[in-house]
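User: Good morning. I'm curious how zinc ion would be positioned relative to this chain. Could you predict the structure with it bound?
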Amino acid sequence: MALATAGSGNQKALRRLIAGILLLGGSSGFGATPAPLRQMTVRVYDYSGVPANVQAAARDGVAAIFRRAGVELIWVDCPITAPSETRPAACDIGPVPGLLTLKIVPESMAGGFRLPRDKFGLAVREYGAYVFFDRLRNHTAAKSLLLPPILGIVTAHELGHLLLEKGHSAAGLMAEGLLSTQFRDAEKGVWPAFTLDQIAWIQRQPKPALVAGAGILPSG
Ligand SMILES: [Zn+2]
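Assistant: Good morning! Here's the predicted structure, ligand included:
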């Protein structure tokens, strides 16, 4: 229970941590004590064959968003067709606290969810975050947007759903209707953020469990 609820001392520590995180996002962090980042692992199942350069640029954005929330993301690629003995052990274990699952899927898989065509992704706590890649690609073509920023924002948004109890916020990364202005800003390196309440919630998540041999980091 003590781990699950934040007492007043923990609240103070949390406020200091958030202040430190915000300072980290500032110009030089001059005079600020860098807040320790807690680590979370994201295992990625790419069913869409996303080009490596697009994937890398999108991950940079996702990492920047989570870093501002005090989280360092560790990416584990889980090749779809590789035999299980040749891919990281983290790819083939069940749900573990602190281990996030991302599935980037084509329309042939996305259509099975029977969601409106303007939905770019979905998060199912037991199964992971889904990003509908063909819809993103079509949207970027229609709106003359760059693909990595929109892939990054939608990925961060859906991963956020895996961590947050409440669904959407009025503004920021977790706004229900992601706006073209957010995508345009991200093209310039300005990524949408979690709200302070959401950061506090994320920081209260249980520390990742240590799974022997699976590369899941126990530090928080
Ligand atoms: Zn959402």
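The pocket of zinc ion is lined by residues 157, 161, 168, 176 (CB under 6 Å). The chain is about 35% helix and 15% strand.
Let me know if you'd like a different ligand tried.
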